Amino acid sequence: MLALAALAAVACASLALYAYYSLSYWSRRGIPQIPKAVFPFGHIWRTVLFQQSFGEECSGLYDKVPASAPLAGAYFFTNPAVVVSDPDLIKKMLVKDFHHFHDRGLYINEDVDPLSGHLFLMPGESWRLLSNKLSPTFTSGKMKLMFPIMEQCARELAEVLDGGPGETEFRDLSARFTTDVIASCAFGLEVHSLRNPDEEFRYWSKRLVSPTIVESLVASFCNMFPKIANIFRIHSVPTDVDTYFTNLVKDTMNYRDSHKMSSGDFLQLLMNLRDDQKKAEEDQQKLAGSKDMKLNTGQLAAQCSVFFLAGFETSSTTMSFALHELALNPDIQKNLQQEIDETTRKSNGKLTYDDVMTMPYLDKVVSETLRKYPPVPVLNREVTQKYQVPDTAWLLEKGTSVIMPVLALHYDPQYFPQPQRFDPERFSEEQKNSSHDFVYLPFGDGPRICIGMRFGLMQTKIGLASLLSRYNMETCSRTVKELKMDPLSFILNPTSGMWLRYVPSTQEA
Ligand code: HEM
């Protein structure tokens, strides 16, 4: 009994010592430490206990960085992380000193989860090679090729509302719209989930982006402790989801190859890359040992799935947040509708790619929506080479996580006065020029900036233009004005959904 008590005392003392040692990492290095880390969760206990979303928790940490310091140390569990609050330092880390921070440090294991081998997660040299290969498929020329598919989906979006007036939940409707767009543009499939919400592809795409609680806990564990996850070869993508998307891409490619078919979608652009690669090999243009990356079927499927992982909820939530704000701000909605109607009239009733991408007020409304509700509320990097923080003696060790709290910057009144106000004029030419660089980061920045920015903006804008050319958005009894964000979701996502009333605009009535 005595031995047992002694053993327990030693275990408790060791744990206390470990807790003290690991949670004093920053103080031992002379770097300011954010107060109140709680063992074993560190500074993210509200997120771990499902009380607050990760983005909001990181905003709280930003507020605690001392005003005199460009960053401060925090702990994610017992892992050290720095929270950077100084926009000049963020700029350096993302752009000039990128070679110290080129990875995200998240879990990726292509052998176990082929679908995880996509650009967002890819580290080091593999990321550089893949990024060089994929960048040409996201130019505005390539986006124009996909515009007609998108325009067709946007027309269907307005049609499914059935003339109105009525009430609907716009987060789900926007998600079905972006599902149809991505199914067509990325996978070459016409799924019509707008008309048929129970469509099979919609089911699997929902599974891909909305894991169960257990699946999201496993994925969070893998991202927090990637080394351990790698040793145990943990699946971070459910195997049934992996199999569905890999087979889908394989079957579509086989069908196109055997029927000599071609299309204007992203899968075709990837297949062309694969064919160019094969041809170069056959022509023996490829020097032995030269650095290139062969794209196998699993990798092609992974690049298509990234449209879902990185492009689906980001665009659909932006669309529904914009509609929510427009319903709350009828004057802004009216100005936007005027612009859309005038532009449509000038284009003989049919908006072109250039019309959609250059409407100035639509751009301001979408920019302000992305300020108030940045879908990716935190940018993260990993220190890949030891880094001395400029103008200090502070050294950041290799492997340290770096957190750039975008949501907090977007709500900092020194950069955006009265941050709760929805004011598209913050993005007028004059105001844009007078504001500080690197405090507005909805798409990130530097070499790892969002590669799908044009695509995301295009689908968000055409969806909004299509709805607002036919309907006025109004609040209804189910509209929740003070939105609460889902603590289980990394992307900013309201728990309540977004209920609005849609009424045919007078022009259509
Ligand atoms: C409104 C829509 C979107 C928003 C707000 C958004 C936001 C972001 C952000 C913040 C990042 C991280 C950038 C950084 O770390 O500096 C990112 C990366 C990325 N996004 Fe998007 N995104 C959107 C749409 C899309 C779409 C449609 C795609 C389609 C492929 C996409 C694909 C990617 C990829 C592949 C990366 C990783 C880039 C890399 O690491 O090189 N995104 N996005």
Count, helices:
20
Main-sheet strand order equals 1-2-7-4
Subunit organisation of the chains:
single chain
Cα Rg:
24 Å
Largest sheet: 4 strands, mixed
Bound molecules: protoporphyrin IX containing FE
Query: In CATH, what is the class?
Result: Mainly Alpha
Number of domains: 1
CATH superfamily assignment?
Answer: Cytochrome P450
Q: Strand percentage, roughly?
A: 5-15%
pLDDT < 50 stretches: none
Number of strands: 9
Span between N and C termini? 84 Å
- For this structure, the CATH topology is Cytochrome p450
> Helix content range of the residues, please?
40-55%
- Round the mean pLDDT to the nearest integer and report it: 90
Which architecture does the CATH hierarchy give at level 2? Orthogonal Bundle
Order of helices and strands: HHHHEEHHHEHHHHHHHHHHEEEEHHHEE
Label the structural class.
alpha+beta
